[in-house]
Amino acid sequence: MRIGLVTDTHIPDVARALPPELLQLFKGVDLILHAGDIYSLSVLDDLENIAPVKAARGDDDLLSTLNDPRVKEKHVLSLCGKIVWLAHDPPYYLSKYWLPKVPNADDAPTGSERPDIVVFGHEHTVTVREHNGILFVNSGSATFLRYSYGKGTAGILEIDSGEARANVVQL
Predict the structure, then answer these.
(1) Would you place residue 62 in the very low, low, confident or very high pLDDT band (cuts 50, 70, 90)?
(2) What is the third-level CATH fold of 2-170?
(3) In the predicted model, is pLDDT for residue 95 greater than 70?
(4) Which of 27, 35, 41, 84 has fewest C-beta within 10 Å?
Protein backbone atom coordinates (compact mmCIF):
# COMPACT_ATOMS: atom_id res chain seq x y z
CA MET A 1 0.00 0.00 0.00
CA ARG A 2 1.29 3.45 -0.94
CA ILE A 3 0.13 6.37 1.24
CA GLY A 4 0.68 10.08 0.63
CA LEU A 5 1.63 12.13 3.69
CA VAL A 6 1.10 15.87 3.97
CA THR A 7 0.73 18.33 6.82
CA ASP A 8 0.51 21.99 7.72
CA THR A 9 -0.66 23.26 4.34
CA HIS A 10 -2.09 26.50 5.82
CA ILE A 11 -4.05 27.25 2.62
CA PRO A 12 -4.98 30.00 1.72
CA ASP A 13 -2.97 31.87 4.38
CA VAL A 14 0.56 30.98 3.22
CA ALA A 15 -0.15 29.64 -0.29
CA ARG A 16 -3.07 29.92 -2.68
CA ALA A 17 -3.13 26.20 -3.55
CA LEU A 18 -1.30 22.94 -3.12
CA PRO A 19 1.99 22.81 -5.02
CA PRO A 20 1.64 20.96 -8.35
CA GLU A 21 4.68 18.87 -7.34
CA LEU A 22 2.69 17.52 -4.40
CA LEU A 23 -0.18 16.46 -6.63
CA GLN A 24 2.31 14.78 -8.98
CA LEU A 25 4.02 12.97 -6.09
CA PHE A 26 0.69 11.59 -4.89
CA LYS A 27 -0.43 10.20 -8.27
CA GLY A 28 -1.19 6.52 -7.82
CA VAL A 29 -1.31 6.49 -4.01
CA ASP A 30 -4.01 4.39 -2.34
CA LEU A 31 -4.71 6.83 0.50
CA ILE A 32 -3.69 10.32 1.61
CA LEU A 33 -3.15 11.27 5.26
CA HIS A 34 -3.16 15.00 6.12
CA ALA A 35 -1.78 15.64 9.61
CA GLY A 36 -3.60 18.90 10.23
CA ASP A 37 -3.53 22.68 9.95
CA ILE A 38 -5.50 22.32 6.75
CA TYR A 39 -7.28 25.69 7.09
CA SER A 40 -9.52 25.26 4.02
CA LEU A 41 -11.48 22.08 3.34
CA SER A 42 -10.88 22.71 -0.38
CA VAL A 43 -7.41 21.24 0.29
CA LEU A 44 -8.98 17.90 1.23
CA ASP A 45 -11.33 18.12 -1.76
CA ASP A 46 -8.35 18.64 -4.10
CA LEU A 47 -6.48 15.72 -2.54
CA GLU A 48 -9.58 13.54 -2.73
CA ASN A 49 -9.44 13.87 -6.53
CA ILE A 50 -6.33 11.68 -6.26
CA ALA A 51 -7.22 9.20 -3.49
CA PRO A 52 -9.37 8.86 -0.35
CA VAL A 53 -8.32 11.29 2.41
CA LYS A 54 -8.18 11.11 6.19
CA ALA A 55 -7.13 14.20 8.14
CA ALA A 56 -6.26 15.15 11.68
CA ARG A 57 -7.70 18.35 13.12
CA GLY A 58 -4.89 20.85 13.63
CA ASP A 59 -4.78 23.45 16.35
CA ASP A 60 -5.80 26.07 13.75
CA ASP A 61 -8.59 23.94 12.20
CA LEU A 62 -11.15 23.95 14.99
CA LEU A 63 -14.14 25.66 13.42
CA SER A 64 -13.50 24.98 9.73
CA THR A 65 -13.42 21.19 10.12
CA LEU A 66 -16.03 20.43 12.78
CA ASN A 67 -18.58 18.79 10.49
CA ASP A 68 -16.30 17.11 7.95
CA PRO A 69 -16.28 13.29 8.37
CA ARG A 70 -12.75 13.08 6.95
CA VAL A 71 -11.36 15.06 9.90
CA LYS A 72 -10.91 13.78 13.47
CA GLU A 73 -8.70 14.65 16.41
CA LYS A 74 -7.04 11.27 15.93
CA HIS A 75 -7.56 8.48 13.42
CA VAL A 76 -6.63 4.91 14.32
CA LEU A 77 -6.30 2.98 11.08
CA SER A 78 -5.51 -0.65 10.38
CA LEU A 79 -3.56 -0.70 7.13
CA CYS A 80 -1.97 -3.87 5.75
CA GLY A 81 -1.60 -5.33 9.22
CA LYS A 82 -0.16 -2.16 10.78
CA ILE A 83 -1.89 0.14 13.25
CA VAL A 84 -1.42 3.73 12.08
CA TRP A 85 -2.25 6.74 14.22
CA LEU A 86 -2.85 10.05 12.49
CA ALA A 87 -2.80 13.11 14.76
CA HIS A 88 -1.66 16.71 14.45
CA ASP A 89 0.26 16.87 17.71
CA PRO A 90 3.86 15.65 17.87
CA PRO A 91 4.74 12.56 19.93
CA TYR A 92 5.57 14.42 23.13
CA TYR A 93 2.01 15.78 23.11
CA LEU A 94 0.46 12.40 22.32
CA SER A 95 0.15 11.15 25.89
CA LYS A 96 -3.43 12.45 25.85
CA TYR A 97 -4.18 9.75 23.25
CA TRP A 98 -2.38 6.79 24.82
CA LEU A 99 -4.42 4.20 26.64
CA PRO A 100 -3.72 3.74 29.44
CA LYS A 101 -2.22 7.16 30.16
CA VAL A 102 1.55 7.08 30.28
CA PRO A 103 3.91 9.42 32.12
CA ASN A 104 5.70 10.54 28.97
CA ALA A 105 5.76 9.90 25.23
CA ASP A 106 8.92 7.78 25.44
CA ASP A 107 6.88 5.05 27.11
CA ALA A 108 5.09 2.98 24.49
CA PRO A 109 1.42 2.13 24.99
CA THR A 110 0.35 -1.48 25.20
CA GLY A 111 -2.64 -3.47 23.96
CA SER A 112 -4.71 -3.20 20.82
CA GLU A 113 -4.33 0.61 20.66
CA ARG A 114 -0.53 0.42 20.40
CA PRO A 115 0.50 1.99 17.08
CA ASP A 116 3.10 0.65 14.71
CA ILE A 117 3.26 4.02 12.95
CA VAL A 118 2.43 7.55 14.16
CA VAL A 119 1.92 10.21 11.47
CA PHE A 120 1.90 13.74 12.90
CA GLY A 121 2.50 17.39 12.02
CA HIS A 122 2.49 20.76 13.82
CA GLU A 123 6.27 21.33 13.96
CA HIS A 124 6.84 22.20 10.27
CA THR A 125 9.98 20.05 10.33
CA VAL A 126 10.71 16.60 8.93
CA THR A 127 10.92 13.57 11.21
CA VAL A 128 11.34 9.95 10.19
CA ARG A 129 12.41 8.01 13.26
CA GLU A 130 11.79 4.68 14.91
CA HIS A 131 11.54 4.60 18.69
CA ASN A 132 10.39 1.75 20.94
CA GLY A 133 9.30 -0.17 17.82
CA ILE A 134 7.10 2.69 16.59
CA LEU A 135 7.82 4.58 13.35
CA PHE A 136 7.21 8.32 13.83
CA VAL A 137 6.73 10.37 10.65
CA ASN A 138 6.25 14.11 10.21
CA SER A 139 6.38 15.10 6.54
CA GLY A 140 7.22 18.72 7.41
CA SER A 141 4.99 21.13 5.52
CA ALA A 142 4.13 21.27 1.84
CA THR A 143 3.90 25.08 1.86
CA PHE A 144 5.49 26.43 5.06
CA LEU A 145 8.53 24.28 5.95
CA ARG A 146 10.35 25.59 9.03
CA TYR A 147 7.86 28.49 8.89
CA SER A 148 9.35 29.76 5.62
CA TYR A 149 7.15 30.55 2.64
CA GLY A 150 7.55 28.43 -0.48
CA LYS A 151 7.53 24.83 -1.55
CA GLY A 152 8.24 22.45 1.25
CA THR A 153 8.11 18.70 1.74
CA ALA A 154 5.70 15.78 1.59
CA GLY A 155 6.05 12.07 2.18
CA ILE A 156 5.23 8.62 0.98
CA LEU A 157 4.59 5.80 3.43
CA GLU A 158 4.78 2.31 1.95
CA ILE A 159 3.48 -0.74 3.77
CA ASP A 160 4.33 -4.00 2.06
CA SER A 161 4.68 -7.55 3.39
CA GLY A 162 4.41 -6.35 6.97
CA GLU A 163 7.19 -3.78 6.55
CA ALA A 164 6.72 -0.02 6.68
CA ARG A 165 9.00 2.56 5.05
CA ALA A 166 8.62 6.32 4.97
CA ASN A 167 10.36 8.75 2.66
CA VAL A 168 10.02 12.54 2.77
CA VAL A 169 10.93 14.51 -0.36
CA GLN A 170 11.52 18.14 -1.18
CA LEU A 171 8.84 19.46 -3.55
Answers:
(1) confident
(2) Purple Acid Phosphatase; chain A, domain 2 (3.60.21)
(3) no
(4) 27
